[in-house]
Protein: Pirin family protein
Amino acid sequence: MITLRKAQDRGQADLGWLKSQHTFSFSSYYDPEHMGISSLRVINDDRVTPGAGFDTHGHKDMEIISYVISGTIAHKDSFGNIKTLPAGEFQLMSAGKGIYHSEFNASNTEPLHFLQIWIRPDTLGIDAGYQQKAFEQSSPLTAVVTPNGENGTLKVQQDATLYRLVLSEGEKVTMARSAAQADRHLYVQLIEGTLDINGTTLTAGDGAHLTQLASIDFTAISGQVTALVFDLSANA
Structure:
């Protein structure tokens, strides 16, 4: 089954310096039908004006992933990490017992566009941590976040894997699902291009929840397709 979440149906927030679209309930946007899927709790599509950003604030017991679509994030946290996160890179902050951080648009002239993703951890009260990496797209589906951090991926404290999907126009890739994987959830967030998933068409900003599919065909209909694909536990 494929359940489509159109871009325009997401929750909306406009703070002037920040325009955000919420796939799931977040802050003042509440929809009991969209509270998250499995351990995936937040996908916020954030656009930040030049020089603006989020002042120092705290998080606890959450795995927070940022993926920059365009622009650069300036990050600073209570563990002494002072980093910049450019377009195409992934950041994973394990809030654990508690961490304070700020994140700003590093440019005073160019806007920042990024996805902020929250995943509930499987263990509470762990030590906080910070990871950041740029990944080569060695195949159409490239794992970037895994539970064990294998093959140089970022390690998340949950039974969840995040892939980046990149396809050229007309290109197709198939994800086969074994019987043991049948009850797991997949969630696809399309960033750019037009993507067909088993006959369902997504345009930029759309999401899709996939369940009980033995085989999934991803086909780029127009433009270069970039998407994030989450493989999530049935039980989280």
Remarks:
- Residues 47 and 186 are 25 Å apart (CA to CA).
